[in-house]
Amino acid sequence: MLFSPFLVSQAQKRETSPGTTGTTSEDERSKKMKKEDLVAKGLSEEHAQIAVDAWNEAVKGFVPKDRFDEVSGKLKEANSTIETLKKDNSDNEELQKQVNEYKEKVTALEIASANTVKEYALKDKLKEAGVVDADYIIYKQGGLDKFTFDKDGKPVGIDDIVKPLKESSPHLFKTEPGADYRPAGGGTPPAKNPFAKDSFNLTEQGKLLKENPAQAQVLAAAAGVTINV
């Protein structure tokens, strides 16, 4: 069974009001994407649901358009190759082997596209929790597979992961502009964040960069400023 999580069924392209001509807008097509239409095109119930879920996440902005187009293009190319080989070379054992290899490629792309949706949803959730570098947190936890997701691909239990990290590694999280900074290793923190708008101080910035560049980088990030240390 050929399948693409980002497939917009041909049925959608034909959806117009009775007695009218033309096609619906992009927004209308995304809203009208239905599992039944995909099942009618030959997908299984399970794959149709995954496709609808992935599409819904994509149109909500979880996945950047360039990444969406990249994965979608690869799936389209692989599926097209499979159909051509099956049609023209049904009696050729070697080429049928190649068909199976392309099927495996499609399966791998399906998994990759589903993981892409999960990854961006997870990063958004971590950023909402105040994480400065979501990629680093994911890496430290052991990768995407170490996180739990619901049936819609949304991360769950993030608070249970973030809470102990805030206590043990506060530098991994944003601090309120102007708030005191307490480094995990001790030391005397500045009274205010010298990079924050309401407590901006070039002298303190220079002193901090010289004495504690790591702390300076964290405070700058908390204030929305990027510095090279």
From TrEMBL:
Superkingdom classification of source: Bacteria
Sections of the chain in a coiled coil: 68-112
InterPro entries according to UniProt: SCAF
The keyword Chaperone belongs to this UniProt entry's keyword annotation: no
Annotated Basic and acidic residues bias: 26-37, 169-179
Entry keyword Coiled coil: yes
Alphabetic keyword roster: Coiled coil
A Pfam family of this chain: Phage_scaffold
Disordered as annotated region, ranges: 1-37, 169-198
Listed name of the protein: Phage minor structural protein GP20
Naturally occurring in which organism (per UniProt): Hungatella hathewayi DSM 13479
